[in-house]
Amino acid sequence: MNAIALFQSGGGAAAVAVANFLPIVAIGLVFYFLVIAPANKQRKKQQEMLSTLKKGDRVLTTGGIYGTIQGVEPDAVYLKIAENTKVKVARSAISNIVSGESEAQ
């Protein structure tokens, strides 16, 4: 309705085009702030956590396996998941660092 008022008052085709384009821009901005920006923030936080992994950290993998880091490589970590059981896991498979629980050595 606003576009029709601009057109009738002599605003011209340019004013109508701008008035019709504004809702699309508003939807794009809302989408950015509700979806894209939080996802970028979460991805940055995850990358920071993966870059700070060190020997002795207790971690949880995306597969649900708890373990203690025994060794670190650029693209992988070695997890001790039980006595005499170590597995090599991709760094990207680490979902988070667990605190508060200590593994019996």
List keywords for this structure.
45% helix; alpha+beta; 2 domains; five-stranded antiparallel sheet; SH3 type barrels; 105 residues
Spell out the blueprint of helices and strands.
Blueprint (H helix, E strand, L loop, with lengths): L1 H7 L3 H40 L6 E4 L4 E7 L3 E7 L2 E6 L3 E4 L8
Antiparallel strand pairs: 1-2, 1-5, 2-3, 3-4
Helix pairs in contact: 1-2
Tell me about this structure.
By secondary structure, the chain is α+β, with helices and mostly antiparallel strands. It folds into two domains: 2-50; 54-97, SH3 type barrels (Roll), CATH 2.30.30. Helix content is 45%, strand content 27%. The chain is built from two helices and five strands. It has helices spanning 2-8, 12-51; strands at residues 58-61, 66-72, 76-82, 85-90, 94-97. Strands 4-3-2-1-5 form a five-stranded antiparallel β-sheet, with helices on one face. Strand 1 and strand 2 form a beta hairpin. The longest helix has 40 residues, at 12-51. The protein is rod-shaped and about 80 Å long. The termini are far apart. The model has no long low-confidence stretch (mean pLDDT 86).
Could you write a compact summary of the structure shown?
The protein contains 2 helices and 5 strands. The chain is an alpha+beta fold and 105 residues long.
Residues in β-strands, percent: 25-35%
Unreliable residue stretches? none
Structurally, how many domains make up the residues? 2
Which strands sit side by side, in order, in the main sheet?
A: 4-3-2-1-5
**Biggest sheet record:** 5 strands, antiparallel
- Look at the helices and sheets and give the structural class: alpha+beta
Count of helices? 2
The 3D shape can be described as rod-shaped
* Average residue pLDDT: 86
| Whole-angstrom Rg | 26 Å
Give the distance, in angstroms, between the N- and C-terminal Cα atoms.
Answer: 73 Å
Q: What is the number of beta strands?
A: 5
Encode the helix/strand succession as letters. Answer: HHEEEEE
- Helicity, in percent? 40-55%
